[in-house]
Write a structure and sequence with these properties.
252 residues; three-stranded antiparallel sheet; alpha+beta; 35% helix
């Protein structure tokens, strides 16, 4: 890429981008996140993509993955250069551990995750897509929050292109009621707290807060139904832990 970066290995592919491990000509290693070519032609998608690294840097917390550079490849695809991390997402860890994590581990992980979100919210940044897939645990036990690509600075207008591109913004299983309704002027740090509660719920039980045959079913449930009390899903859980998750998942 641009005579600077050699792509070494594909790390993952999502709906908007592919992520590679790369080596700079000076020997430095990094993660290269490339927007899919067909999306790189849309100005507002390119803008939102580039904003990911900038917003993560604005958070000013070591738990937010830093953007190091941004550029355009020879074929017109745009890419971000980000820190290359050694670890696994909480989603991958959940699967590797058999579908449930120990409550003590979940609490320790959540404590670090909330610390990153405190820093983000203090800067007026709402992540809006907290979920196990976007939280990485490094080999030295540190939490790193990924994908600030749909984060919003509160001062952005709710009718700007930053928040309406014809698609749902967020992941249905981890969306608070107001976010599921698309009420962007009401989406603030409390929506991230709800998503943290949903993340804890899934890590502890191996189940989502709301189930459905389709993503739309889950969205309808998020809008209309209260989350089940965690103790009814996992009776063996210590009551203080269950109460903590229930409070995060409060409908109002």
């Amino acid at each position: 890429l641009r005579g600077k970066w050699q792509l070494d290995a594909l790390l993952g592919v999502g709906g908007m981008a592919a992520v590679y491990a790369g080596t700079h000509r000076n020997g430095a290693r990094a993660a290269i996140k490339m927007l899919h070519p067909e999306l790189s032609t849309h100005d507002h998608i390119r803008s939102r993509f580039f904003r990911e690294g900038r917003v993560a840097n604005t958070v000013g917390h070591p738990g937010a993955v830093k953007g190091l550079d941004e550029d355009e490849a020879e074929d017109g695809s745009v890419f971000l250069v980000m820190e290359l991390l050694d670890g696994e997402s909480l989603e991958a860890r959940l699967e590797r551990k058999g579908g449930k994590l120990d409550p003590d581990e979940v609490l320790a992980t959540t404590d670090q995750l909330l610390d990153v979100l405190i820093a983000a919210h203090d800067k007026g940044i709402v992540h809006r897509d907290i979920k196990p897939e976007n939280v990485l645990l490094t080999r030295d036990g540190q939490i790193r929050v990924l994908d600030f690509g749909i984060a919003r600075l509160r001062e952005l207008s709710s009718v700007s292109n930053a928040t309406r591109d014809g698609s749902t913004i967020g992941t249905p299983a981890y969306m608070s009621p107001e976010q599921a309704r698309g009420l962007w002027d009401e989406v603030d740090g409390r929506a991230d707290v709800w998503a943290v509660g949903a993340t804890m719920f899934t890590l502890l039980t191996g189940k989502p807060v709301h189930s459905g045959r389709t993503a739309n079913d889950v969205l309808v449930s998020a809008v209309t139904q209260k989350a089940p009390r965690l103790i009814t899903v996992m009776p063996e859980l210590p009551l203080p832990v269950a109460n903590l998750v229930d409070r995060a998942l409060a409908f109002d």
